TrEMBL record, chain B:
GO cellular component, one term: plasma membrane
Coiled coil feature spans: none
GO molecular function: ATP binding; ATP hydrolysis activity
Species for this entry: Rhizobium giardinii
Name of the protein in question: Branched-chain amino acid transport system ATP-binding protein
Residue ranges constituting the ABC transporter domain according to the UniProt record: 13-261
Keywords on record: ATP-binding, Nucleotide-binding, Transport
SMART domains per the UniProt record, alphabetical: AAA
From TrEMBL, chain C:
Protein name (database record): Branched-chain amino acid transport system ATP-binding protein
Residues covered by the ABC transporter domain: 4-236
Keyword Nucleotide-binding listed: yes
A Pfam family hit: ABC_tran
SMART domains from the UniProt entry: AAA
TrEMBL record, chain D:
Intracellular or extracellular location(s): Cell membrane
Pfam families registered for this protein in UniProt: BPD_transp_2
Identification of the protein by name: Branched-chain amino acid transport system permease protein
Listed GO CC annotations: plasma membrane
Keyword presence, Transmembrane helix: yes
Provenance organism: Rhizobium giardinii
InterPro entries attached to this UniProt entry: ABC_transp_permease, LivM-like
GO molecular function, one term: branched-chain amino acid transmembrane transporter activity
UniProtKB keywords: Cell membrane, Membrane, Transmembrane, Transmembrane helix
Record field: transmembrane: 30-50, 57-79, 85-106, 113-138, 158-180, 209-233, 239-270, 282-302
Membrane topology of this protein: Multi-pass membrane protein
Automatic annotation (TrEMBL), chain E:
GO biological process annotation, one example: amino acid transport
Domain of life of the native organism: Bacteria
Principal location listed in the UniProt entry: membrane
Protein name: Branched-chain amino acid transport system permease protein
Segments crossing the lipid bilayer: 7-29, 60-83, 95-114, 134-158, 187-206, 212-230, 237-260, 266-288
Molecular function GO labels: transmembrane transporter activity
Similarity field: Belongs to the binding-protein-dependent transport system permease family. LivHM subfamily.
CC per GO annotation: plasma membrane
Keywords attached to this entry: Amino-acid transport, Cell membrane, Membrane, Transmembrane, Transmembrane helix, Transport
Keyword flag Cell inner membrane: no
Topological type in the membrane: Multi-pass membrane protein
Length: 383, 263, 238, 319, 293
């Protein structure tokens, strides 16, 4: 077949857009993580692709400040001017929604989006990456059903699709159990503080606090539950349970919180003997990334970069259609940063969510300790 | 005050027992004053006597606590500031009320605003009519500038004029409003002696041509005495005296309070 | 002894020249009037001397060349300027205005003393001491401007049209105050005025400025008698 | 007078040349960007009237822009109205909302008004989320592309660009009608000194409300165009920062200049991304420096700066 | 009922955060007639400097002291380089310039220290104490006490000292100030320096609550502006009262007004500000400007 735009015999051009600046610049870590993995691969000579040719990846990174309008502008420029082969790791839901129509029109793959929301609008040309928030909700519900079957839950939720998706799924999962939700309070990423919401949640008499919020507010909530004399069982979304967040809160304040993740916990920048983690540490060091090693967003970026490279290795023909075929038919792909037992699986036509398993962790004041086994939700991602 | 004189012709402007207070400061206490049609009435008094405040009250820029002010026999209570000019009261300001960044012509054209209405609706939906009005307004404004001898300065920025010319431009703007009565607050400020004479002639000419009533506040005694038909004197926010220039000039109370020894 | 010596002073507003090579001097302890019609350049001259405008030529004050000296320093050297249009701090109280007038005065007791003195002179200001200057009547503000300038106890007081907006009796009073400061404290005065007749009653000497140039000068008594000059430059009819 | 119409003619033809060459030389993706810049420019035109001439600082112009965008999107996505037909409605609804926002302006001035309106801008995205059933919440709303005339189906962006340009033309006409006449004078008069203006018979209430309404109508029109050109809108596009950016665009372009509105719109769209093109990690540093340096060099905005130079050159040539 | 008191208490704590930035805004406004939108970001930069010094092993108090001195220098340099050349530029230009300062300092922090939030040590003992069921944070009490002291000192200096009078005069009118011998540039420079110090102190006080990050001040900006407006832009004490009023009403409104809720709580300070301004357009403690006709 005719090669698609953006690919030559020795290079392939890939576009990344994300918020490198602005209030959620932490999410820019995705782009940085991808860059680290790609530079690593290029440094090792390039990617030996399925058609037998070895290509170097040329990354085009653009800053969109999380403004969907700028995301679209960046994508158009990358597609029409820079002629990228595909987009990877596009951050945040509204931004992916904004480019949906355009990428379907132009038939440009938008792979391994950094978005935890299920409903998108160009499924043929997209594939997700991180587990949906509904998956995380299921995992939390699962934990409660076993460990606190009569939990009285208070929700602090991000007032976007993120929080909505999470709560809808959670409500569905606890149906028919003795678990009750007593109070829900929204937060926005613009809220200066969330004391008010937390006070109201505390006053509800709940014994379980579920935190679905961006790092700043999530961190504040973690601190609150330890400071306020309220000692609920605290479940925190992985959006705001990364080690650096806990550091900012004070590790002792985070003791006992429970979170779920598909990544291995990394709490030290020293070689651990785990090959995947060690290669990651090398990569981010030589790429001189702007996040710290323990940042899960950066790790996710690196994992996305690795997934990209794996898909290219399997690309038999240098076309965009072929790429979509590959990423829509993943069967148990491994990833260096994934927790053992979690892999990527998709099925063309029915399942575009590569990661649908989570591991629960509890923080012991120093590090995350896995609790229970991997929770598998393969093929069950729902609204 | 002098009731018999009021009977003769109805005054254009008549104030009775007007008091104005700013917080604890009593700026005016029960002052009365009237201006007959076609008359130039002088209003003098020491600094802080309340002259400007009276003008502000008469144009409804400040509220008066008691008393009444009537225009053509109509009470002004409840009339909005912005409607005063439409009722025929135009004024100048002691501390200059000019628009420094606009041209002289624009300033003068603003005088006719109350007649044109300056409505956005008209400008947007009836642009041709708005443009025609604008043209005729400009011509009239030029004519007024001609009348005060400032036509050659029409395109200058008002702020760049010398102080006395700015004051004169304010008069032109007031005239563009085609008022019945003109209230002038120290219009001759900054003029030299000779210029004051010339200025007096200008004001008198305007009054005659347009058959205007004028209330004139000035500290320039030569001008006031030569120009005014009648003079009212305020002191400490009250009426002190009233009379013809000759009477005022020789009024001991006025000399003591205001004129000083060598008037 | 000459206190203020102005030589070939030229001032430009952008490209337009307002003063052309003006030269004159004011002796210490003199009361000098600067006369001239509108737009002659009187204000410009004062602004140049007090440091509000840059100039060409030279201005010496007590033997010092002023061109490199900042406005603050000029004030400290004793040059005070009461600007046209008063320049009071309208959003400050009368009292604060007087305090500001004494910015360069270090001695608190002197400030207190002087305030008392000017309140004595202008009882109106005392009545209004806690009122905002902007709410004063025009003439009251003029009094305040004068009192404020005197708070720094200047050696050379330049006053731009003090009579503007003042009642005749107050004009006389202020000129009389100037005169007595001049006589008793030896303060040098340079007063710009339109009100020629009254000014010449108090001044020792006068210069006439016209279209940016000094066109005449003389003692006050000379000028009062000189109908020619009065007619052609000062517009005083008969 | 003749001078004035001559310079207007020169400006207009210059504008036409620029507009035409953009449509010829700009690649499709850039053309769409330019169309978005023009949508912002329409809102800036309104803000210039309000801020530059009426002297009222409104930090909610982005909100009114958003109202317009949502009116267009809702009418189109929910009720199937053809996109272009929604534009007058978008302008009208925004005008009405603008009147409401303008009410406090009758009593508040300057800084105080700026801050109250800024608050409204900050609350707007939350309100959009709260009214999710109407606005589509965080997922936003799609907008149909307007039907492209046959001969340009290859470059639908060109059609979008022309639509934006036409709307901007209407906006500019509207503003010029208001500004160059008695209404405009009254507007400036109440800005420079409201008390004197009142004494001259200016109805402050009416003048200010009209200024708000006109400005908001233009914001709404711009927003509608924005929705059409983007094809998709969501609350994230109308955060408080948008209102700030519109104000920046207005000032950088020149608050009292109509051409400045276009400069400002282009500035808003292109300069931040150029800055990050220069160096990805220093993008905002460069942008911040650019803001400061531009204002230091061109304190009356870019058009003010250019006009100063042009008139200087003319004067040189003449004298 | 205990929820009510808890909401009031934590509203006060949050209000103290708003008041801190508002105080710096009011100071610079009073001293230079400029609303410095970048004040918060300049302050964040100083807080990062403190953090950095501590990373290098400097003890907290010394680090704070050093950064406050540094903040003074930053204020002065900003004035010299950016503001002084623009002293007689139109106000719009200044608005963009201060927004430029905001962007610049935020970008600088992000470039040097990254986007991640960091923990910042509190000047006060951690935790708090309970009054009945109500929990009071020691840091909130401490912050408020310091702010109050600063506001009173500022008010005193502005009103009763020669320096304060001169600073106000310089902000009011340059020419007039020059004529009475006020060193205008120096006053404005001091204004920038002091405001920068107060801002830095504010940032150091509130960073422990907000976590240190380049954008920590951004969400506060509107609330601080509202607080300053509510209190009246020329009153330091007003800034504190305004900040606390905003904090408490917002906290109560978010909990007790169901149609507002936590997601629309920003409507509460807007409404409060609007109502107060409609009654008193210059704010609670603001003074009216005068125009004599
Ligand atoms: N807004 C105000 N607040 C407080 N006092 C005021 C206000 N306006 C005027 N006054 C006071 O009222 C008195 C009268 O002032 P007004 O301006 O009417 O005097 P005037 O007769 O015009 O004096 P002048 O000849 O000096 O202009 C003055 O003592 C002044 O201080
Ligand atoms: N800021 C300025 N810009 C340009 N030209 C100016 C400026 N100020 C004054 N001029 C011009 O300089 C000349 C001298 O003005 P100046 O104010 O010194 O005159 P004056 O003698 O004080 O007049 P008046 O009696 O009206 O106060 C005038 O022609 C005036 O137009
Ligand atoms: C924190 C946010 C950037 C996450 C975003 N709401 C998402 O959909 O992934
Ligand atoms: Mg008066
Ligand atoms: Mg003068």
């Amino acid at each position: 077949a005719e090669p698609s735009p953006g690919i030559t015999d020795d290079t392939i051009k890939i576009g990344v857009t994300g918020p490198l600046t602005g209030p959620v610049a932490v999410v820019g870590g995705v782009a940085e993580g991808i860059r680290a993995r790609v530079e690593q691969a290029n440094g090792e000579g390039g990617v030996k692709m399925g058609d037998g040719k070895t290509r170097k990846i040329e990354l085009v990174i653009e800053d969109d400040g999380l403004d969907p309008q700028r995301t679209l502008a960046n994508v158009r420029k990358m597609v029409e001017k820079d002629k990228v082969f595909a987009l990877v790791g596009t951050a945040a839901t509204p931004n992916n929604l904004a480019i949906g129509r355009y990428i379907s029109q132009k038939k440009v793959p938008n792979v391994f989006m950094y978005s935890g929301v299920v409903a998108l609008n160009a499924p043929e040309w997209e594939v997700g990456f991180v587990p949906s928030f509904s998956t995380e909700a299921d995992a939390f519900a699962e934990y409660l059903k076993i460990n606190r079957p009569d939990a009285r839950v208070a929700f602090l939720y991000l007032n976007t699709e993120t929080g909505q998706t999470f709560m809808t799924a959670f409500d569905g999962a606890i149906e028919g159990t003795a678990i009750r939700v007593l109070e829900r309070q929204p937060v926005t990423s613009q809220d200066p503080t969330v004391e008010t919401q937390l006070n109201t949640l505390k006053a509800s008499g709940a014994d379980t606090l579920v935190i679905i919020a961006a790092p700043r507010q999530g961190g504040e909530a973690i601190r609150f539950q330890s400071e306020s004399g309220w000692k609920p069982l605290t479940l925190v979304t992985n959006l705001s349970s990364a080690y650096p967040v806990l550091q900012s809160v004070g590790l002792e304040n985070a003791k006992g919180i429970i979170t779920s993740d598909f990544l291995k916990p990394i709490v030290s920048d020293q070689k651990s003997g785990d090959e995947g983690v060690d290669r990651y540490l090398d990569a981010i060091k030589s790429a001189n990334v702007n996040f710290v090693f323990a940042n899960t967003i950066g790790q996710t970026g690196y994992a996305i970069g690795d997934a990209l490279i794996q898909s290219l290795e399997k690309l038999k023909q240098p076309t965009r259609e072929e790429l979509m075929k590959v990423v829509h038919n993943m069967d148990g792909w491994k990833n260096p940063l994934f927790f053992d037992g979690i892999s990527m699986n998709t099925k063309e036509g029915s399942d575009i969510y590569p990661v649908e398993a989570l591991q629960l962790y509890q923080f012991d004041g120093q590090k995350y300790i896995p609790i229970g086994g991997v929770l598998e939700f393969e093929g069950t991602t729902h609204e | 005050m002098n009731d018999s004189s009021i009977e003769e012709v109805r005054p254009v402007l008549q104030a009775r027992d007007v008091s104005v207070q700013f917080g604890g400061v009593k700026a005016l206490t029960d002052v009365s004053l009237f201006v007959r049609p076609g008359e130039i009435c002088g209003l003098i008094g020491p600094n802080g006597a309340g002259k400007s405040t009276f003008l502000n009250a008469a144009t409804r820029l400040v509220n008066y606590a008691t008393g009444s002010i009537m225009l053509d026999g109509q009470p002004l209570e409840g009339v909005e500031t912005r409607d005063m000019i439409g009722r025929g009261v135009a004024r100048t300001f002691q501390n200059l009320g000019i628009y420094a960044s606009m041209t002289v012509l624009e300033n003068v054209m603003l005088g006719a605003h109350h007649r044109l209405g300056g409505s956005f609706a008209k400008a947007i939906f009836a642009p041709l009519r708005a443009r025609a009005l604008e043209r005729s307004n400009r011509e009239k404004a030029m004519a007024v500038l001609e009348e005060v001898g400032m036509a050659n300065l029409a395109a200058r920025a008002a702020g760049s004029l010398a102080y006395p010319l700015q004051k004169r431009m304010e008069i032109a703007r007031a005239l563009a409003a085609e008022p019945k009565i003109l209230l002038l607050d120290e219009p001759a400020g900054g003029l030299t002696h000779g210029e004051v004479h010339e200025f007096g002639a200008l004001v008198d000419g305007i009054r005659r041509r347009r058959n205007l009533s004028i209330l004139l506040i000035e500290h320039h005694m030569g001008l006031v005495m030569s120009l005014c038909d009648r003079i009212v004197v305020f002191h400490l926010g009250r009426n002190l005296a009233e009379g013809t220039p000759a009477e005022i000039k020789s009024n001991d109370a006025v000399i003591a309070a205001y004129l000083g020894k060598a008037a | 002894m000459t206190l203020l010596d102005i030589r070939d002073l030229s001032v430009f507003y952008g490209k337009t020249q307002a003063l052309f090579d003006c030269s004159f001097s004011v002796g210490e302890g003199e009361f000098v009037a600067l006369l001239g019609s509108n737009g002659a350049g009187k204000t410009t001259l004062l602004r140049a001397v007090s440091g509000l405008l840059p100039f060409k030529g030279s201005v010496f004050y007590a033997g010092k060349a002023l061109d490199k000296i900042s406005a603050q320093t000029r004030l400290a050297l004793g040059v005070a300027h009461i600007p046209q249009g008063r320049g009071t701090f309208t959003e400050f109280t009368v009292e604060e205005n007087l305090s500001l007038g004494a910015t360069i005065v270090a001695s608190r007791s002197q400030v207190r003393e002087d305030k008392e003195r000017w309140y004595e002179t202008f009882p109106r200001l005392r009545e209004r001491r806690n009122q905002l200057a902007g709410n004063l009547s025009g003439g009251e503000q003029q009094m305040l401007a004068v009192a404020r300038a005197l708070m720094s106890r200047p050696k050379l007081l330049m006053c731009d049209e003090p009579s503007l907006g003042l009642a005749p009796s107050i004009t006389q009073e202020i000129l009389a105050i100037f005169k007595s400061l001049n006589k008793e404290n030896g303060m040098t005065l340079l007063v710009v005025e339109q009100n020629v007749d009254i000014t010449l009653q108090y001044a020792d000497r006068a210069f006439v400025i016209e279209a940016g140039q000094i066109v005449a000068s003389g003692t006050a008594s000379d000028l009062i008698g000189n109908e020619d000059i009065k007619k052609s430059y000062l517009g005083v009819a008969g | 007078m003749r001078d004035l119409s001559l310079s207007t003619a020169i400006k207009l033809s210059l504008f036409a040349i620029v507009a035409a060459s953009i449509s010829v030389f700009a690649p499709a993706y850039a053309l769409q960007q330019v169309a978005i810049a023009i949508a912002y420019a329409i809102a800036i035109l309104g803000l210039n009237l309000l801020m530059g001439y009426a002297g009222q600082i409104c930090l909610a112009q982005g909100t009114l822009f958003g109202v317009g965008a949502y009116v267009t999107a809702i009418l189109n996505a929910t009720y199937g109205v053809s996109p272009l037909a929604t534009l007058p409605v978008a302008a009208a609804v925004s005008a009405a909302v603008g009147l409401l926002i303008g009410l406090p302006a009758l009593r508040l001035q300057g800084l105080q008004l700026a801050i109250v309106t800024f608050g409204i801008a900050a609350a707007f995205p939350q309100l959009l989320l709260k009214l999710g059933s109407l606005t589509g919440g965080v997922s936003g709303l799609p907008v149909d592309a307007p039907e492209t005339p046959g001969f340009m189906t290859d470059v639908p962006e060109l059609w979008l660009y022309l639509i934006a340009l036409a709307c901007a033309g209407i906006g500019a006409l509207l503003v010029s009608r208001v500004l160059f006449g008695d209404a405009g004078r009254a507007l400036r008069a109440q800005r420079d000194n409201p008390q004197i203006a009142q004494a001259l018979g200016v109805n402050l209430t009416r003048t200010r409300l009209w200024a708000f309404a006109t400005s908001s109508a233009l914001a709404g029109l711009g927003g509608g165009v924005f929705a059409i050109v983007s094809g998709f809108i969501s609350p994230e596009s109308f955060l408080a920062i948008l209102s700030i950016n519109i104000v920046i665009g207005s000032i950088v372009g020149g608050v009292t200049s109509m051409a400045g509105a276009f400069v400002g719109g282009l500035f808003m769209v292109f300069v931040p991304s150029w800055a990050s093109d220069i160096n990805l990690s220093l993008g905002n540093l460069i942008y911040g420096l650019a803001l400061i340096l531009i204002m230091m060099v061109a304190r009356n905005g870019i058009t003010g700066f250019i006009e100063k130079w042009i008139s200087m050159i003319f004067r040189r040539a003449a004298g | 009922m205990s929820l009510f008191f808890q909401l009031v208490t934590s509203g006060l704590a949050t209000g103290a955060i708003y008041a801190a930035l508002a105080l710096a805004l009011v100071l610079i406004f009073r001293a230079t007639n400029v609303v410095n939108f970048g004040q918060g970001e300049m302050a964040t930069f100083s807080a990062y400097c403190t953090w950095q010094l501590m990373q290098w092993g400097v003890p907290l108090w010394l680090a704070v002291l050093a950064s406050l001195v540094g903040a003074f220098a930053i204020g002065i340099v900003t004035f010299r380089l950016i503001i002084r050349p623009m002293m007689d530029a139109p106000v719009e230009a200044t608005v963009v310039i201060t927004l430029g300062i905001l962007v610049l300092f935020q970008a600088a922090c992000m470039w040097i220290w990254g986007a991640e939030q960091l923990s910042f040590p509190s000047l006060f003992p951690g935790g708090g104490f309970g009054i009945g069921e109500v929990r009071v944070l020691a840091s909130a009490v401490g912050t408020l006490a310091i702010l109050l002291a600063i506001a009173l000192a500022m008010g005193f200096i502005f009103r009763f000292t020669k320096l304060g009078l001169s600073m106000r005069a310089a902000a009011f009118d340059r020419t007039r100030s020059v004529l009475v011998g006020v060193d205008v540039e120096r006053m404005l420079m001091l204004g920038w320096g002091f405001a920068s110090v107060i801002g830095a102190l504010a940032a150091i006080l509130i960073a422990p609550r907000l976590f240190l990050s380049p954008t920590m001040m951004t969400p506060i900006l509107f609330y601080a502006l509202a607080a300053a407006t509510l209190g009246g832009w020329d009153s330091p004490l007003g800034a504190i009262v305004g900040g606390l009023a905003v904090g408490v009403t917002e906290s109560l409104g978010a909990s007790y007004l169901p149609f507002v809720g936590a997601d629309m709580r920003i409507a509460v300070p807007i409404a409060l500000t609007l109502i107060i301004l409609l009654v008193k357009p210059v704010g609670l403690f603001g003074s009216y400007k005068v125009t004599k006709l």
